Amino acid sequence: MATCVPVRDMKDTAKFSETVRNADGPVTVTKNGRDEFVVMTSDAYEGIKQELARMKLYDIVFQAERELAEGKYSDYDTFSRELREKYGL
């Protein structure tokens, strides 16, 4: 069940902090009946950041696999030679 509280509930910081810690997920804070912002624990936020990083990594791996299947790759010797030529090394 989503947790939603009015912004005035944030005045009692100890109670609001407990609400966030005990919620099953992020807590939506409303102002004048509209969503104003979302609050979550630091652990939940770190989990979201790690999942996003994992998704980005998977995208990179899947792109590399597609390029490999399409023959869009160079062997190490060709790749390193092209880099040295490009950067004058």
The major beta sheet can be summarized as: 3 strands, mixed
Oligomer: single chain
End-to-end distance, in Å? 59 Å
Instruction: List the helices and strands in order.
Output: EHEEHH
Spatial ordering of strands, largest sheet = 1-2-3
Q: What is the domain tally?
A: 2
Q: Given the C-alpha coordinates, what overall shape results?
A: elongated
Q: What is the SS-derived class? A: alpha+beta
Helix content: 55-70%
* Number of H/I helices: 3
- The share of residues in extended strands comes to 15-25%
Roughly how many Å is the radius of gyration?
24 Å
Q: How many β-strand runs?
A: 3
- Unreliable sequence segments: none
Mean pLDDT: 95
Short structural description:
Helix content is 56%, strand content 17%.
Provide an overview of this structure.
The protein is α+β, with helices and mostly antiparallel strands and 89 residues long. The protein folds into two domains: 3-40, YefM-like domain (YefM-like fold), CATH 3.40.1620.10; 44-87. It has helices spanning 13-22, 42-69, 76-87; strands at 3-6, 27-31, 34-39. Strands 1-2-3 form a three-stranded mixed β-sheet, with no helix packed on it. 2% of the residues are buried.
Please specify the SSE layout and strand pairing.
Elements: E1 3-6, H1 13-22, E2 27-31, E3 34-39, H2 42-69, H3 76-87
Parallel strand pairs: 1-2
Antiparallel strand pairs: 2-3
